[in-house]
Amino acid sequence: MEDEGFSPHTWGELRKLIANNDLAALQRKPSEVMKYFSWIEEINTVYGSATNYLCRERLQWEPLPASTTNASPSFHCKSTMLFSDPEDYRILRNDWPYGVTPDITHLVVWVKSRIPTEGETGDLTVESRHAVENFIQKTFVERIGASNATDYVLWFKNWSALQSVRGIDHVHVLVRNVPDSLLTEWTG
What is the C-alpha separation between 188 and 123, in angstroms, rounded? Predict the structure, then answer.
């Protein structure tokens, strides 16, 4: 498919896809997919893996000596509770966002600890879903001042088969019509 035939995801479409857990339907512009494959080839040559690149360049997190960045690195966490210490997570703009309309920004919340999931399905546990929802509410929804969260904030965690970076747990956050000042506040 050429870019001309690609329709960016609208907010309404994203809402439906995420609500139905139809995450495999999320697409990028074809030209962006090609650029991504080129980029990942270069990153693998220079850094050995996308995980190594993320640790060193984007997150600036040092894996524990006993762990390996090529698989699933471990990090020193300030807290055992998910999202309770800002040093244990980092919010960044997605370097390779899904193809969305211009009013939508794709962020990623990277976490040093593992986000517990159900063994067979890979879906979030009840406890981890609650922790993510609380974090999203406090960090994004309340900061935006939205009365209806899904008008401005959507989130999801890809199951492992859909993840291009599997070694570091992360949650995708999509925000709509958010001023640059807030995006800078969240991403630094």
Answer: 30
Judged against a pLDDT cut of 80, whether residue 181 lies above it is answered with yes
| Contact predicate 115/82, CB 8 Å | yes
CA dihedral (145, 148, 151, 156) positive or negative: positive
Q: pLDDT by residue (tens digit) across 145-158?
A: 877 777 999 999 98
pLDDT of residue 103: 97
pLDDT-derived band at 123 (thresholds 50, 70, 90) equals confident
- Count CA atoms closer than 13 A to 58's CA, side-chain side: 20
| Structure tokens given for 139 | 């960090």
Q: How is the chain split among helix, strand and coil, in percent rounded to 5? A: 40, 15, 45
Whole-angstrom CA distances from 14 to 20, 50, 73, 75, 156 are: 10, 26, 31, 32, 11
Q: Is the pTM of this model over 0.85?
A: yes
Q: Which two tokens stand for residue 45?
A: 């040559």
